[in-house]
Specification:
It contains two helices and 14 strands, in the order ββββββββαββββββα. By secondary structure, the chain is mainly beta. The protein is globular.
């Protein structure tokens, strides 16, 4: 199966079974491409669709720059998500399609996250570690982040940037004026 909408293409191959109101799938391969970014499955993808609830019990997406592991469910009619995942060796610049020469955002990330709520603006908890972080012209050796986002409030429980023999630690909160979906759209469009 292959579906293209604008610059986004979804490709899947595998076995799909239809039983009453339940559809289950074990996909040998799945890939999503958005513009020049491409993520493809590593191993089988296991998912079920019952009514409007899509449950993914196994999904690992590989990129040139690491992988993302996901499990959880999506309520299609309500556009709600309840998922958890992990980043393993993800190069942030390449994973988000940011040119290496731009040096806007970079480093290699590992960590875990939970996403719950409406797709437009869900709650997120994350614990991330980044090796060789880069933000604009600032470079470091490590970055450790513990953060929580609730619509309208970003709380940074821990943020520790280390470079050479020095480090800086921050904590606090901010009130963003964008939904998470709008922020991601602006980031990917480099606005």
């Amino acid at each position: 199966y292959r579906e293209t909408l604008g610059d986004t293409t979804l490709t899947i191959a595998g076995e799909i079974r239809f039983l009453d109101r339940k559809t289950s799938a074990v996909l040998d391969s799945a890939a999503i491409q958005i513009g020049s970014l491409r993520w493809r499955s590593v191993g089988a993808v296991e998912a079920e669709l019952e009514g409007d609830r899509l449950t993914v019990s196994r999904l690992t997406l590989g990129m040139d720059s690491g992988r993302v592991e996901l499990v959880g469910n999506l309520r299609l009619k309500e556009n709600r998500v309840d998922a958890r995942g992990a980043l393993r060796g993800v190069d942030l610049a390449r994973g988000m399609g940011i040119a290496e020469s731009a040096a806007t955002l970079g480093g290699v990330a590992d960590g875990e996250f939970i996403v719950v709520g409406p797709l437009e603006d869900p709650e997120i908890q994350a614990e991330l570690g980044v090796l060789h972080p880069r933000i604009q012209g600032f470079k470091g050796d490590t970055l450790a982040l513990g953060l929580q986002y609730m619509p309208g409030l970003l709380s940074i429980e821990t943020a520790r940037w280390a470079a050479g023999g020095g480090s800086i630690s921050l904590s606090g909160s901010a009130r963003p004026h964008l939904t998470l979906q709008d922020w991601i759209r602006a980031l990917t469009l480099k606005e």
